[in-house]
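DM from R.C. (forwarded with permission)

"hey, sorry to bug you on a friday — could you get me a structure for this? deadline for the figure draft is monday and I only need the backbone to look sensible"
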Amino acid sequence: MSCNGDTDGQLIIEASGGTGIIRYSIADQLSEFFEADDPLFPNRKTFTDLGPRSYEVIIQDALGCTITQTITITEPMELVAGVVDSTPETCLGDQDGTVSLDVLGGTPPYEFALNSSADVDFAPNPSMFWDNLVGGDTYVIFVRDSRGCETNVIVPIGIGVELIATPIIQYGCDGIFPNSTVTVEMQDPSQYSDLLFALNPADPTDAITALATTERIWGNLPAGDHTVYIYHSNGCTTFVDFTTDAYEPLTLSAVKSGPNEITATAMGGYGGYEYFFQGVSYADVNVYETNEDAIVNIMVRDQGGCEAVIAIPFDFTGMLEIPNFFTPDGDNNNELWFPRNRDYFPNIEVKIYDRYGRVVAVLDQVSGWDGKYDGSALPSGDYWYVVNANDKERQQYVGHFTLYR
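My reply, with the result:
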C-alpha cells in the first residue's frame, strides 16, 4: 500500500513447474481463475487495487494440480503531523514567529512545503522548524512522505506585542525649588504587569543588564536628554526619548518706582508669572499703586506652580502741589485752578473762599475752579483754600492764591 487507507495494493505471483498453462485465483473470487498477464514472464500474474488484508491465492496447472497460499498485504501507519511548539512575533512587525512540527507514520523521509502543495515547493527540512513568520498570519504546512502520501498542519502565528509609550513631563515646585516628575505611560495599561523599565541604562541589552524595575516615575531629573528602555516579559524591547528643560530658581525683587508705586520683577522659574500684591492677584501686571505707608506683601507664581515671596516697607511720598495763581481770561492757558498730583488722593476735598469767607467752589479729585460763582465771573484778587487730603494721615493744606484777569 502506498498510503494508509488507500486500496492500491498489488500482489505479483509467479509459479514454476506443473503441467501446461498455469492459472491463478484470489479471494474473494476463488471460483474464477486468471492466466498470467506479463508477456515477459509467462507464469506471472499481477493482482491490483487491493486493500490491506490477508488474501488466499490458488495456483492451478492444466492437470488441476493446485497450490494454495495465504498472502497478507500491509499498509503503512497513518501519516500524522502536529505542532510541537510555536511562538508569536516578539514585537509587532518583527516577523519572527516560529513553529516546530513532529511527524509520525507514513514512510520516511519526509518533505515539506509552506503554504503550497505544488511539487516544486516540497523540500527536506530535517529539523522540522520554520522561523521568520509574520504575526497575525495563518500558515499551512504540507507534509509528504517518500511514497507521496500527504497531510497538512494549519498554524496561526500570534501577533507581536505593540509597545507604545509616552513620556509625561510635569514641571512643579516646592516653594522656589523644582519638584518635577517624568512618568512613562503605556497606551495599553494592561501591559504594566509584564513590563520592566530602565532609565538611562549603561547596558540596555536586556532587562537584567539594564537593571530594569517596575518603577516608571522619576523625579528631579537633570536637564538634558534621557532614554527609558521598556522590556516586555516575552522579550519585546522598545525605548522612548525625552528632554527635560533646564531650571533656574524663581526669584522676585521689587523697587519703589514712583511716589505711590511699586514695581515687582520675577526671573527664572518656568515663566508665565502671576503677581499677587497684599494677597490679591494682579494677573501678569507687576505694578502696584498705594497711597499709604505700609508693608507690602508680594508673591509671584509661575506656570509650574513655583512661588517666591517678599515683603517690603513702602513709604508713600505723594505730595500735593498748590498753584499760586491762575488766569481764567479765555486764552485756554491756565484757565482752571486745582491742586496738582490729586491722583494720589482719591478722597481729596477742596474748598475755595473769597475775602468775605464765602465758599465759592468745592472741588474733588477731578474738578477745577474756573473763577466763577453761580455762573458769574468773580473779580481779580486773592482767594483762600482749605484742602483736606482725607488720607490715612489726615493731611490738610491751607493757603491762598491769586486770580488774574
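R.C.: lifesaver. The two ends are 143 Å apart (CA to CA).
me: no worries. The chain has no helices and 34 strands.
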